[in-house]
């Protein structure tokens, strides 16, 4: 697996991976009509192509040896909440998804390492398996009541996680 920036030619496969991975994780939570509308709004090839072209949005792709997309992370630089931050360069992690068939192969870890390197935040990685339900344990729920991964604990104890509005939520 290699990590590389997204290119214009990646729009179609990236949109497909976004739809597939989102549906694998969240489809059961949506009314089918609402899900279809959401997927058309967020994961249309033209929307993804526009994001790839946008200098304020960076996609990092995890590409398997056979050339297929295995996962991706999307960050916003600067964060849409930059005005509320004292950071020199606040970023927002918008999405971090892997191919559902390849969960547990270190793809999410590699992408999160890239995100953290971009944010220049020192970190220790602790794997949490959503497939095994580790995100629903009492200990994890104390860290993140939404039971979502990834979670970032800053040196000052602040917890940051992804929320559906494509931004960080601070608890």
Give the overall form.
globular
- Give the beta-strand count: 7
Strand order of the largest sheet: 1-2-3-4
Give the distance, in angstroms, between the N- and C-terminal Cα atoms.
34 Å
Kindly state the mean pLDDT as a whole number? 84
Q: What class do helices, strands and sheet pairing give? A: alpha+beta
Rg result? 16 Å
Tally of helical segments: 5
Relative strand content: 15-25%
Write the layout of secondary structure elements.
Layout: E1 2-5, H1 11-26, H2 32-42, H3 45-53, E2 57-63, E3 69-76, E4 92-98, H4 107-119, H5 138-143, E5 151-153, E6 159-163, E7 167-170
Antiparallel strand pairs: 1-2, 2-3, 3-4, 5-6, 6-7
Structure description:
With 171 residues, the protein is of the alpha+beta class. The chain is 32% helix and 22% strand. It contains 5 helices and 7 strands; from the N terminus they run βαααβββααβββ. The strands form 2 sheets. A 4-stranded antiparallel beta sheet has the order 1-2-3-4, with helices on both faces. Strands 5-6-7 form a 3-stranded antiparallel beta sheet, with no helix packed on it. A hairpin with a 5-residue loop joins β2 and β3. α1 packs across α3. The radius of gyration is 16 Å and the shape is globular. The C terminus is likely disordered.
């Amino acid at each position: 697996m290699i990590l590389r920036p997204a290119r214009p030619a990646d729009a179609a496969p990236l949109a497909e991976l976004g739809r597939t991975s989102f549906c694998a994780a969240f489809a059961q939570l949506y009314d089918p009509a609402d899900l279809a509308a959401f997927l058309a709004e967020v994961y249309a090839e033209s929307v993804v192509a526009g994001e790839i072209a946008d200098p304020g949005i960076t996609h990092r792709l995890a590409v398997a040896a056979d050339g297929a997309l295995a996962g991706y992370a999307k960050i916003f630089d600067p964060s849409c909440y930059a005005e509320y931050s004292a950071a020199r360069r606040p970023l927002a992690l918008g999405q971090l998804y892997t191919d559902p068939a390849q969960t547990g192969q270190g793809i999410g870890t590699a992408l999160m390492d890239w995100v953290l390197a971009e944010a220049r935040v020192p970190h220790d990685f602790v794997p949490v398996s959503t497939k095994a339900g580790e995100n629903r344990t009492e200990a994890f729920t104390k860290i993140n009541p939404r039971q979502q991964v990834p979670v970032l604990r800053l040196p000052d104890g602040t917890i940051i996680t992804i929320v559906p509005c494509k931004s960080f939520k601070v608890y």
